[in-house]
C-alpha cells in the first residue's frame, strides 16, 4: 500500500507530467469504486469466513499490478492505462476494507483503543517502509518496484490465510455468537440493517458526517496536494515526495504508539477526535505558507500525528457502538463516507490548484476544516460522548 501511495500519483505528475486536474481525476478513479462496491463488500464479508475471503482478495490485487507491469515493460504506459489500473485496484480495495476492518471486532471493548492503535501503527510502519522503497524509483526502476509489490501481495495472501484459518471453532477461545456462520438473508435487507445502525444512533450519524468531511477535505489535500507540493511548491522529485510521506507516516505511528501504551480507554473519544480535526486544519494552513524545510517536516509530522489519532478514535467509536454481527456492514458504511468524500475532494483540490494556485487552495481547505471543527464542537453529540464501559 505504501508503494502504491507514492508510485501511482508520481506516475501521473512525475513521469507522464500531467496537470493537477488530471492527478485529481486519477485519484478519483481509485476512490470512486468505493461508492459502488463497498456496501456490497460489507454484506459479502459478513456472510463469509473473513480470513479465506481476505486471502482471495489479496490475490486479486496482483491482477492490476501485473497489468501495469506489462504496460511498463512494453513501453505502453499512458494516462488511460493508469486510469484503468486505478479503477481495478480501487474495486478490489472496496471489498478488502470492510472485511479487514471487521477483524478488529474480536477485541474487547475496553481494550479496543489499544487494538486499533496497534493495527494502525503496524500498518503505517509497513507503509513507511513502502514509501522509503518507492523513493528509490530513479535508482531501482519502476518495473522492479512493481515486482516487489506483486510479491508482497502474494505473501500477504498466504499469511492472512494462515493467521485466520477457516476451521477454528473452539468456543473457549471464540464465543459461539461471533464464530463466522453463513447468513442466507436477502442482501437488500442486510444493507438496510447496516444503514439503520447509523440512522437510529445520532452519535454514529455525526461520526459519519465528520468522517465524510475528513474524506473531502483531509484526503483531498493529502492525495493531490502532497505530490504537487513536492513538485511545484518545492521543485522536488519522487525522493522528496516519498520523504514527505515517510514523515507523515512517522507522525501516525508515533501517535498510535502512544495510544497503544495507554491502559485506559479515552474518556471523551468524540471530543478528542474533533480537536484532532481542528489541529489538522491549523497545520494545513501553515503548509499553505510554504515554510522552509526545517519547519515543513515537523508540520507534516504533526499533521500525521493528528491524522493517526483521528483514525484510531473514529474506528474505536465505531467498533464500541456496533454489534459484532454487523461489523462488516457498519465498517463498509463508515468507509463509504470516508472514501466517498475523497474522490470529490481529490478532484476539487486538483481543479483548485490548477486554477487558483497551490497556497490559496491549501488555505481554503484549512479554513473549511476549521469551520467544520467549530460546528462539530458546538452542535455534535460526539463532543459529549463518553468512553465505553466494561461489560
Total number of distinct structural domains: 1
Give the CA-CA distance, first to last residue.
Answer: 36 Å
Beta-strand percentage range: under 5%
CATH topology: Growth Hormone, Chain: A
What is the number of E strands? Answer: 0
**What spatial form do the alpha-carbon principal axes imply?**
globular
Q: How many helical stretches?
A: 15
Assign a percent range to the helix content. Answer: over 70%
CATH homolog superfamily: MFS general substrate transporter like domains
Identify low-pLDDT runs. Answer: 168-184
Structural class estimated from helices and strands:
mainly alpha
Describe this protein with a few key phrases.
globular; mainly alpha; 391 residues
Short description:
Helix 4 packs antiparallel against helix 8 and helix 5 (79-102) runs antiparallel to helix 14.
Overview of this protein structure:
With 391 residues, this protein is mainly alpha-helical. It has one domain: Growth Hormone, Chain: A (Up-down Bundle). Helix content is 79%, strand content 0%. The protein is built from 15 helices and no strands. Helix 3 packs antiparallel against helix 5 and helix 14 runs antiparallel to helix 15 (358-379). It is globular. It starts with a helix and ends in a 12-residue tail after the last helix.
Amino acid at each position: 500500500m505504501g508503494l502504491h501511495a507514492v508510485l501511482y500519483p508520481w506516475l501521473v505528475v512525475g513521469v507522464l507530467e500531467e496537470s493537477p486536474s488530471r492527478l485529481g481525476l486519477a485519484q478519483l478513479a481509485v476512490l470512486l469504486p468505493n461508492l459502488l462496491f463497498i456496501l456490497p463488500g460489507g454484506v459479502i464479508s459478513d456472510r463469509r469466513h473473513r480470513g479465506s475471503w481476505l486471502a482471495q482478495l489479496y490475490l486479486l490485487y496482483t491482477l492490476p499490478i501485473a497489468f501495469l507491469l506489462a504496460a511498463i515493460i512494453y513501453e505502453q504506459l499512458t494516462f488511460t492505462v493508469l486510469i484503468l489500473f486505478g479503477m481495478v485496484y480501487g474495486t478490489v480495495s472496496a471489498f478488502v476494507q470492510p472485511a479487514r476492518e471487521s477483524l478488529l471486532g474480536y477485541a474487547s471493548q475496553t481494550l479496543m483503543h489499544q487494538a486499533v492503535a496497534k493495527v494502525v501503527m503496524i500498518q503505517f510502519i509497513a507503509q513507511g517502509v513502502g514509501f522509503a522503497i518507492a523513493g528509490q524509483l530513479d535508482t531501482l526502476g519502476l518495473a522492479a518496484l512493481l515486482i516487489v509489490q506483486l510479491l508482497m501481495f502474494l505473501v500477504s495472501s498466504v499469511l492472512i490465510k494462515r493467521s485466520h484459518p477457516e476451521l477454528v471453532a473452539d468456543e473457549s477461545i471464540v464465543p459461539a455468537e461471533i464464530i463466522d456462520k453463513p447468513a442466507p438473508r436477502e442482501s437488500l435487507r442486510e444493507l438496510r440493517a447496516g444503514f439503520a445502525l447509523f440512522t437510529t444512533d445520532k452519535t454514529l450519524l455525526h461520526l459519519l458526517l465528520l468522517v465524510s468531511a475528513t474524506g473531502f477535505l483531509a484526503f483531498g489535500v493529502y492525495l493531490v496536494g502532497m505530490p504537487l507540493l513536492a513538485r511545484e511548491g518545492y521543485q522536488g522529485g519522487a525522493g522528496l515526495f516519498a520523504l514527505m510521506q515517510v514523515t507523515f507516516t512517522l507522525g501516525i505511528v508515533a501517535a498510535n504508539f502512544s495510544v497503544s501504551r495507554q491502559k485506559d480507554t479515552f474518556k471523551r473519544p468524540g471530543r478528542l477526535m474533533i480537536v484532532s480535526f481542528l489541529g489538522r486544519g491549523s497545520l494545513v494552513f501553515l503548509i499553505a505558507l510554504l515554510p522552509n524545510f526545517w519547519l515543513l517536516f515537523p508540520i507534516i509530522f504533526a499533521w500525521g500525528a493528528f491524522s493517526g489519532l483521528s483514525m484510531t478514535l473514529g474506528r474505536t467509536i465505531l467498533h464500541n457502538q456496533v454489534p459484532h454481527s454487523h461489523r462488516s456492514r457498519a465498517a463498509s458504511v463508515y468507509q463509504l463516507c470516508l472514501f466517498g468524500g475523497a474522490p470529490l475532494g481529490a478532484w476539487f483540490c486538483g481543479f483548485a490548484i490548477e486554477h487558483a494556485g497551490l497556497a490559496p487552495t491549501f488555505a481554503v481547505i484549512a479554513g473549511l476544516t476549521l469551520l467544520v471543527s467549530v460546528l462539530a464542537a458546538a452542535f455534535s453529540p460526539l463532543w459529549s460522548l463518553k468512553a465505553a464501559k466494561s461489560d
